[in-house]
Amino acid sequence: MTRVLYTLCGREENRPFSPHCWKVVLALAHKGLDFVERPCPFTAIPSIEYGFSKTVPVLRDGNRLVRDSFEIALYLEEAYPDRPTLFAGEGGKALSRFVESFSQMVIHMPVTKMAIMHIHDMLDEADQAYFRASRLERLGRPIEELAAEGEAERAAFAARLEPVRRTLHFQPFLGGDSPLFADYILFGALQWMRVTAGPPPLARDDTVLQWFERCLDLHDGLGRRVAAA
């Protein structure tokens, strides 16, 4: 059985960058499940699996199709209970929901502002037009206006991660002694930045950066297979 994960890329298929897709890439590796990754540009997403989803990631596991990164993680946990756990119980699911909310509400917009023009430049012409129109509709401002705030966001970025920093003072991963899906959620956001706009603007001795480096090394350095921008 061939397991297929559809992810997001620009002109270069070997540089997938979606934070949500990276969560699932590491989740599959965590479970020890083989898969084929098929990166797609924005404008190809509607044709994936006959229009199954408007967004990626999409996982095909045999006859089963699953969309949305969190739903895929839940599916993997239920379908493969004999493999290493992504949640370690209901508490881990609750932790992951919190980290997902923190990441999307506190981290994603600053990363968007720092990375948005870099992402635009990674796309081909058709996807650039789609990207401009869809970001304007979603965010209410042209991408140049958002990018103009990128340097201010870069200067403030480390402070936004203080709750994570304090947590990592007590344990090497958000999941405790070893990573859980909660770690992959936040990793996805920082990997998104690393692949599109360069490494997160954190000091070398920052506990969060040290955690991120540990995550890059997980699963035989899977996160490092794509070089930083």
Proportion in helices: 55-70%
What does the largest sheet look like?
4 strands, mixed
Low-confidence stretches: none
Strand content: 5-15%
The radius of gyration computed from the alpha-carbon positions, rounded to a whole number of angstroms, is 17 Å
Mean pLDDT: 98
Strand order of the largest sheet: 2-1-3-4
Q: How many beta strands in the DSSP annotation?
A: 4
Series of H and E elements: EHEEEHHHHHHHH
Just give the CATH class of the domain at 3-79. Answer: Alpha Beta
Number of helices: 9
Shape: globular
CATH architecture of the domain at 3-79: 3-Layer(aba) Sandwich
The CATH topology assignment of the domain at 3-79 is Glutaredoxin
Domain GST N-terminal: 8-84
Pfam family, one: GST_N_3
InterPro entries: Glutathione-S-Trfase_C_sf, Glutathione_S-Trfase_N, GST_UstS-like_C, Thioredoxin-like_sf
Protein name: Glutathione S-transferase family protein
Summarize it.
Residues 8-84 form the GST N-terminal domain. It is built from 9 helices and 4 strands.
